[in-house]
Amino acid sequence: HDNTIAAISKAYKQQCDSPIHSTSLIHNRVYHLFISEMAAADDFQTASQKFLSWFKSLQGATFHDDIRIVDLRGQSAGRGIAFNADEYSVATKDIAPETVLFTIPRKAIINIETSELPRKIPQVFTGNDGDDEDMENEPLDSWGSLILVMIYEYLQGDASPWKPYFEVLPEKFDTLMFWESSDLEYLKGSAVLSKIGKDEADEMFRSRILSVISANPTIFFPQGVSPPGETELLQLAHRMGSIIMAYAFDLENEEEPEQEDEEWVEDREGKTMLGMVPMADILNADAEFNAHVNHGEDDLSVTALRTIKAGEEILNYYGPHPNSELLRRYGYVTPKHSRYDVVEIPWGLVQSILSEQLRLTDDVWKQVAEHVDPEDLEDVFVLERESGEPDSEGRLTTPAKVQEVSPELEEQLKGVLKAIKKVRGDLIPDKRKRDEVYHHVVVSTLQKLLTQYPTTAEEDEALLASGNLTSRQKMAVEVRLGEKRLIKEALQVAGLGDNGAAEEVAADEGQERSSKRARTAQ
C-alpha cells in the first residue's frame, strides 16, 4: 500500500508542523487517517478482484496468467495492467510478441445491441417518421445512445449484468469539463479552452437524455427506487459522458459494407457504433505502446506488439493527440505526446497584423474582398511538427520537427497579398516586397501568440521545478509550455525563411502558385 503510506506520511508531517496540535491529537488523527486509507485501498483492490473474477467468468473471455490489474493511483493513473507486477509474483519468462494478452467477447461489450434498453424504448434509438428537421424525432447519435444505455445499466444496480464493471469505472475525473475556473486560468492562451463545451453538453443532456429518462421512469428506475432530481441526473450524465469520451471504442463491423457511389457518400459521423469494452479500457495509453486491440467477428483481442518484460506496464495507443487534447478528453498529459502538440493560428490575428503593417483601411479590405472569395478563407490554421508514425512495435523512431509554419496559411496569406497588390500596387510593388511582408506577418503573428500566455516558457519551467503546483495546475503548465516551445521552434523556421526569401525573387512572377511552394525551412 505505497499510496496509503505516502498519504499518511504527508498528513503526519502537516499535523506535526502545526503548533496548535498536541502530540496525542496528532496521533489520533493520523490513526484515523490510516484506517480510512487502508479501507479505501482494500475497497479498491476488492473491486478490482471482483471485476477480474467476473471477467474471467464470461463465456469466450481469456486473461493471460502472467498479467495483473495493478493499482497506479500513485501515478495518477487509476488502474492499469502490467506483466507480473504483483510484488509477490515472480516472472519466469518474457511475454513474446503477438501473444494474446486477453480476449473480450463482443457479447460482453456495453452498446445498443447488448443492452435491453433499445428494445424497451426503440423509438428513441430509431427515431419517428416525420419532419427531418424535428430534432425531437431524430434518433440519438452513437454518443447520446451510449450515454443513455450507460445510465440505464448503472441505475439497474445488481440487476445489470455489468455491475462489477461499473464498480471499477471512475467516479472522479481530471478532464477539463470538471476543472474549477481557478485551474482553467492556467490554460489561458491555449485554444483548448474554447473546446470544453460544458454549456453545450448540459443543453444536450437536458434536451435529449434527461427528457427520455423523465418520460420513462418505470423503465429506468427499478421498483421501489425513487428517481433522483435533475441535478443528480445531470451529474450522472456528465460522468457517463466522460467515461465514454475517455474509454469507449469505435466498434468495427466488417459485415456492413460501405454504401458509396459516385453520386452520394454517406456521412457516417455520429453513426459508428460506440461501445464500452470491459478490460480493454483498463489499459493506459501513451505515444509509445506495446499492445494493440484487434477487432474480430466475435470478440476483441489485445495482443503484444513486442517483447514485454517483467513489471512492464501494458500500454495501448489512443492516437497522435497533442497534450491539450489528451487533457481535454482523458484528463492526463505525457512527455512523449508533446511531439504532437499543436497551436492554432487564428486568421483574424494574421489579418490584424497585416492591416497594421500595411496600414490597410476598411475601404481597402472591401476592395480586396472583391478579388478573394470569403468562402475560400480558412478561419484557423494549425501549427504542428512533422512527427512520423510509430513503427509496427509501437516505438517512435523519427524525431519530431517543425518543417514549416503552415502551408495552408502560406497559401491563403500570399493569395490575399496578391489581391492587395491588385488594389494597391504601391503597397506591394514586386515579389520581393510580397515575400518581405509575408515573413514579417508570420513572425509577428507567432510572437503575438506567445504574448497571449500569462507567463514565459522560462517562468513555466521554474513553476514545474518548484513543486508547488497541484496536479491539475502542473498538467496545465505542461500543456502551455509545450505550445510555447512549438511556437519558438516555428519562429526559428520562419527566421531561416527570411534569409532564404531573396532566392525566390528571380522566379517568374507569372509562375503558378503550386510550383512556388518551396519549404523555407530546409
Automatic annotation (TrEMBL):
Gene Ontology terms: cellular component: nucleus
Example GO BP: methylation
InterPro entries: Rubisco_LSMT_subst-bd, Rubisco_LSMT_subst-bd_sf, SET_dom, SET_dom_sf, SETD3_SETD6_MTase, SETD6_SET
Highest taxon of the lineage: Eukaryota
Entry annotated with the keyword Transport: no
GO MF: protein-lysine N-methyltransferase activity
Disordered: annotated span: 498-522
Name used for this protein in its record: Set domain-containing protein
Species whose genome carries this gene: Colletotrichum incanum (Soybean anthracnose fungus)
